[in-house]
Specification:
There is one protein chain. About 30% of the residues lie in helices and about 25% in strands. By secondary structure, the chain is α+β, with helices and mostly antiparallel strands. The protein has one domain. It has a 4-stranded antiparallel β-sheet with strand order 1-2-3-4. A 4-stranded antiparallel β-sheet has the order 5-6-7-8. A hairpin with a 3-residue loop joins β3 and β4. α1 runs antiparallel to α4. The chain starts with a strand and ends with a helix.
Length: about 210
């Protein structure tokens, strides 16, 4: 592996970010080399010992780390709070409602999204009751596109009736601090440090 880094959630679960070695390694523009490059394709995986494994995202490594770093920093500073009607474990439910109906009072939920995979899985991190929670959820596939002829189309209401999050778990604050520091150090190694936004920028600019 060119990169194999682990972000511990608990004693039996973690998130890994990996970039394979040659010849399996891929880069979106350049010919891959043994050195880690910001445009190398990485895979993010949720691992739960002997129970569950989910591919959370597959994208260039700098984008994966950048979005992770932004959300983790916001959560540690409690920059954004959940709307009153949204509680632990149903953030993904309301995220689906927001993307389907574009209800303005739920727009803040986008600030808690780390990744949105091509397999319609979103990874969310947020604060509630002075604790930090990770929520991994299915997202309705046809929010933003018309079903193709060969899709096994399902109406939104039917999807929501059977909606269940894949993962809802508390993450110790000290683990999330380690996540932030590890992300920052990895980003420093692969992109110009001047491109990493300051804590102040992260807290005040919701468009990051």
């Amino acid at each position: 592996m060119t990169l194999n880094v682990q972000f511990v959630i608990s004693n039996d679960s973690n998130i890994t970010i990996t970039v394979p070695s040659l010849p399996e390694k891929d880069n979106v523009i350049f010919i891959p080399t043994e050195q880690l490059h910001s445009l190398d394709i990485a895979t993010v995986t949720y691992n739960e010992y002997q129970r569950k494994k989910l591919i959370l995202h597959k994208e260039v490594i700098d984008e994966i780390l950048y979005s992770f770093y932004i959300v983790v920093t916001r959560v540690l500073e409690q920059t954004f709070t959940l709307p009153d009607k949204v509680t632990v474990g149903n953030v993904g439910y309301y995220m689906n409602m927001y993307h389907e109906h574009r209800t303005h009072d739920l727009k803040v939920l986008d600030q808690f999204r780390i990744w949105w995979s091509n397999q319609d899985i979103q990874t969310l991190l947020y604060n509630a009751n002075d604790r930090i929670y990770l929520e991994i959820v299915p997202i309705y596939p046809w929010h933003l596109e018309i079903p193709k002829a060969d899709d096994e189309y399902e109406p939104f209401d039917a999807f929501m009736q059977r909606y269940t999050p894949y993962v809802v778990t508390e993450v110790p604050r000290e683990n999330v601090i380690t996540w932030r520091d590890k992300c920052y150090n990895l980003l420093k190694d692969i992109i110009d440090e001047s491109r990493i936004p300051s804590q102040q920028e992260i807290m005040t600019n919701p468009d990051l």
